[in-house]
Prior knowledge:
Layout: H1 2-6, H2 20-25, E1 28-33, E2 36-42, H3 43-52, H4 63-71, H5 83-100, H6 125-142
Antiparallel strand pairs: 1-2
Amino acid sequence: MKKLCSKGVTVLTTIHQPSSDIFQLFDQLLLVQSGNLVYQGDASEAVNYFAKIGFKCPELSNPADYFFMHVLTELEGGPNFSQQERENVLSDAWKAHKNKHGTLEKKQPAENKYEVPPEAKTSTLLEQFQLLLKRSWREATRNPMRVR
């Protein structure tokens, strides 16, 4: 994936609890908790950001584990909050951080709202079924399951 990025290809992955080796490869990091954005930016800056708001990652710890185990969830090792308080603290801190740095997206007026052009076509149920059947058939023939 890093080779693809070096060629100008954008790679987006969703990883739950990556190893420290994998975490070191990240350029950007986006953390979401209960549907609320709690961090978005350089992965290398995330540890410092969370330390500033009271969630200091211990030295020699995997930051990804710390974020998952102690920042986003209610386990020992982080500040003692109920889960709802934790969600509020993280969400509010991120909003304040983004406002302070002037990068919080401002709401666009309603007249600039994007609308789907009327000529946009939606697939029928039959077209969707055919596409999924074709994809499943291709997957089954390329990667046959082992019978034991």
